[in-house]
Amino acid sequence: MAMAAADIERLIKERFPDALVSIDDLAGDGDHYAATVVSEAFRGKSRVEQHKMVYDALGGQVGADLHALALKTQVPG
Question: What is the pLDDT of residue 11?
Fold first, then answer.
């Protein structure tokens, strides 16, 4: 089952209310997305830690309803 971009954004923003989130459906199939997430919560964290934080926010959907997510994270500024 596919996952809507709006649902991905909602889950991320629930965990990171200050986040600027951009989602692109890479294949038009609702299964392959690229996301950019900008949040102060990432400050001082390694890239791996930042990505884990986002995957945790998605609650296990990656690999299930969400087949693939290319992720870019950064702090504001």
Answer: 92
